[in-house]
């Protein structure tokens, strides 16, 4: 099934994301919520309507991560009021594709680039492939899965990729990580890389639940890692996140719940708990802990640390901790958006493969480039033009009877799903293996003149 045949999430989602927030489109959902849920939704909505009426209310963004580069600024109250006017009738709904996000809450990065941030700590998988102890090997794969959350404090939203958008990234050994937006409704990205030490495959999507002043984010999809030396296959089941104070107050992000890293080959698992915290100042903020559990359910290693900065293990019955991972040093001069050195590099052509990038690459998005330069107005205009072009392409496909076919991935009709992966929440997309043969050969020094992910040029 192509992305064009998937049902829209709201009456207008397929036609115009900017106007899909019609109030009447979500009352039917609320009518199915129980009395308690309806009362909660109404109470939150009434409270936010009341608070949003204060013109002099201080509305800020940032948090504890500010010292690590998180940008702190006083956002315009009028901007947040405008966003609330779009969102207030979506209480309890998944808002991923229901309205056009204003650029003032965005960062100059595409979601495909954000998916690639996990490769900042690719050395952990390289170490895992070399590791002889199976318990420590699983612990190193787990550290790789946790380390990416050190970038998750950023509260700004990346740009939704355009259908057909791609992102190519040069890896340590010269191999290429490639991500592609394979579906637009719902938004789904797929990524793949095969290095000398590991293979990484991901189908990435999220569902959300908007509850007034916060939005819960639930990752869905499938992430698989295969270590080349042992042939072991691992699956990552991530925790959930919550963006707090979306409309009123200081925006901050919490990540909480269970994370599992499953060795699908041996049956062993890492079982971690990300501690939920009630406020930005909670003493246990960032804490995570758990165990490496063997296939016979015996505990081999105790894991502990903080998802934003470090992770260690110690053997059961022994007292000495061994460091698994520590966050890389942040830029001495923090970027406006709290980017790491690695994330900054993802926006530069120096991180592109030797053969250069395709015209569909995220780095070339004009809205992203404008926002990076600090011009929100131009970024908003460019973003609107891209969204309009995408809708025009959808109409053209419908008129011609065409379907969209991703260039580098294929939907798995019979995905090789392990029994622990049966409910991944979305279709699984697999690498089609055609990149080396079909990718246009270019030069990393020659940058395409314009962003062009389009089916019809």
Automatic annotation (TrEMBL):
Q: Which PROSITE patterns does its entry note?
A: OSBP
Name the InterPro entries for this protein: OSBP_sf, Oxysterol-bd, Oxysterol-bd_CS
Among the GO biological process terms of this entry, one is:
intermembrane lipid transfer
Q: Which cellular components does GO assign to this protein?
A: cytosol; membrane
Q: What's the domain of life for this entry?
A: Eukaryota
Q: Where is the composition biased (Low complexity)?
A: 11-24
Example of a GO MF term: sterol binding
Region annotation (Disordered) maps to 1-24
Question: What family is reported?
Answer: Belongs to the OSBP family.
Q: What is this protein called?
A: Oxysterol-binding protein
Q: Which organism is it from?
A: Ostreococcus mediterraneus
């Amino acid at each position: 099934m192509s992305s064009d045949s998937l049902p829209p999430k709201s009456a207008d989602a397929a036609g115009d994301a900017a106007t899909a927030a019609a109030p009447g489109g979500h009352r039917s959902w609320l009518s199915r919520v129980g009395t308690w849920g309806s009362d909660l939704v109404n109470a939150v909505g009434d409270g936010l309507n009341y608070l949003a009426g204060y013109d002099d209310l201080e509305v800020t963004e940032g948090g504890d991560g500010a010292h690590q580069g998180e940008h702190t600024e006083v956002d315009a109250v009028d901007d947040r009021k405008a966003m609330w006017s779009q969102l207030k009738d979506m209480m309890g709904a998944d808002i991923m594709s229901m309205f056009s996000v204003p650029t003032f809450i965005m960062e100059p990065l595409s979601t495909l680039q954000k998916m690639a941030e996990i490769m900042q700590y690719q050395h952990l998988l390289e170490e895992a492939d070399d590791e002889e102890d199976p318990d420590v090997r699983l612990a190193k794969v787990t550290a790789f899965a946790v380390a990416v959350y050190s970038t998750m404090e950023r509260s700004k939203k990346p740009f939704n990729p355009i259908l057909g958008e791609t992102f190519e990234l040069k890896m340590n050994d010269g191999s290429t990580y490639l991500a592609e937006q394979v579906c637009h409704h719902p938004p789904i990205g797929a990524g793949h890389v095969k290095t000398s030490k590991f293979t990484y495959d991901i189908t990435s999507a999220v569902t959300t639940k908007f509850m007034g002043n916060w939005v819960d984010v639930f990752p869905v999809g499938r992430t698989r890692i295969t270590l080349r030396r042992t042939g072991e296959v691992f699956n990552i089941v991530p925790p959930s996140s919550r963006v707090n104070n979306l409309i009123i107050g200081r925006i901050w992000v919490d990540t909480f719940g269970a994370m599992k890293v499953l060795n699908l080959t041996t049956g062993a698992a890492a079982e971690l708990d990300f501690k939920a915290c009630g406020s930005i100042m909670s003493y246990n903020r960032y804490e995570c802990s758990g165990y490496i559990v063997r296939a016979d359910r015996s505990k081999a290693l105790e894991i502990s640390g903080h998802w934003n900065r470090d992770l260690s293990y110690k053997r059961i019955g022994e007292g000495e901790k061994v460091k698994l991972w520590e966050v890389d040093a942040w830029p001495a001069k923090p970027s406006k958006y709290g980017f790491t050195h690695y994330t900054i590099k993802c926006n530069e052509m120096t991180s592109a493969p030797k053969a250069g990038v395709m015209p569909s690459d995220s780095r070339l998005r004009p809205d992203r480039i404008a926002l990076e330069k600090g011009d929100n107005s131009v970024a908003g205009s460019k973003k609107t033009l891209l969204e309009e072009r995408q809708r025009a392409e959808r109409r053209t496909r419908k008129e011609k009877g065409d379907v969209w076919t991703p260039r580098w991935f294929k939907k798995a009709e019979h995905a090789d799903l392990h029994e622990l992966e049966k409910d991944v929440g979305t279709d699984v997309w697999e690498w089609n293996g055609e990149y080396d043969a079909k990718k246009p050969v270019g030069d990393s020094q020659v940058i395409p003149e314009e962003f062009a992910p389009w089916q019809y040029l």
